[in-house]
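WARN retry 2 of 3 for item q-0093 after timeout on previous attempt; input resubmitted unchanged.
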Amino acid sequence: MLRLEPRLRAIVEQEYPRFSDAEYTRRHQALAAVMQKHDLDHLLVVTDHRVGNAPQWVTGWPGTVEAYVVFRPGEKMTMHVEWYNHFPLARKLARDADVRWGEHRGMQKTIEELKRRGARRVGLMGPLLARKQKELERSFSVVDLDAEYVRLRTIKSQEEIDWLRIGAAFSDAGFEGLLHGTKPGMTERELGNLVERAYVGEGGTTLIHYIGVTSMAQPQLFVPPQFHSARRVQRGDVVFCELSGVWWDYAGQVLRSFTVGADPTPLYRDLHAAAEAAFDAVTAAVRHGTAMQEIVDAAGVIEERGFTVCDDLMHGFGGGYFQPIVGTKSRPAGPLPDMTLEENMTVVVQPNVISREQPAGVQVGELIRVTREGFERLHAAPRGFFRA
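OK item q-0093 returned
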C-alpha cells in the first residue's frame, strides 16, 4: 500500500536515513544567528524524559530518554545521553557530536562541560525538568529559546518537505489499510492495528491514530477519541479518523470518514458535504501572505450550513503542533494568531464538522504545503465519503 516515487524510496531504504551535509549546515547557521541575536556564547539543546525533539533536528539522534547537546558554532558538539544501552546507537546516528554516556547524572556532566568551555550566557532549547533548570541557572545566565526553536521549525526546507512526503505516504497507507480492512465485528483496537500494519514494516512509526466509530442512526461521537475502546463495528456505523504515520519525526496527517455496509444518512451526507466545502474554501484562500481572518472567513460555509466544529480548523504541523492554530467563527481556537502564512509552511486543514443538535460529526482534511500562489497537496489519499 505504500506508494513512493524512486527518489523518496531511496531515502527509506537507507540503513538509517540522514539529511545532507548542506541541510545540517543550514540548521547550524540558523542556530548561530539565534545565538548572535540573543548575545549567547553557548546553546543547550534538550530532550528530557522523552519530551522534546530539538536534539534530533540538530544532530540526527532522536533523543530517546535524555539528550543534552552543547552547541557553539565552529566547535564539535557534545551530547550526553541515557541510557547506557542507547549510547552505542546514539554514537552511530548523531552527526558531528562527541556522544557521551550521562551516567544517570547527565545534567551535572553537561554543566561541567559548559564550565570547561567557559560558558556564561546559555540559550536553552527544549523542555527541562524544573530542578534541572535550577541547577543550570545556579551556574549560568539562561535564556529560554523555545519560541525561537518553533520559529526555526515553522518554515521547512526542501529536504524536510521530502521527509514529510514520506510521512504523508505512511499516513495514506494507514488510511487505505483501515478503509479496506474494516469489517463488522472488529473492535476499535483492531482498527488501530490495521493502520499500523500498513507502514510499520516499511520503517514508519505512529504519532496518532484517532478513530471514532458510532451509529449513524443513533450517534454518540462527534470527534474521534484519542484512545481505542473495545466497541465493535456494526453495519450502519460511520468511521471517522485522524491518522499520522511518522518518518523519523516527520509525520503526515490525513483525516477521512467512511460508512460501514450502508449509505450515509441525510445528516451525515450533509455534514460531510459541509466539511468538503470548507476544506475547498480554506485551501482556496491559502497562499503566501494569507491573513488568519481570511481563513476564518473562508470557513464560514460551516456556519452557513447550520453546523460548527469541535477540532481546530487549521494548525501548523511538521516537527510539532505549531501556530497558526485557527478555529472558526462559532468555535475559535483561542486568540487569532497575529501572523500570515508563509511559503513552505506546512499546515493541516481539517474541518471536523459537527451537528449542533446531536453528537454527530465527520473528519475531512490533510497536511498541505503553502506555496507562493496557493498550496500543494503532500498526500495522495483520495477524497470522498467512502463505504467499507
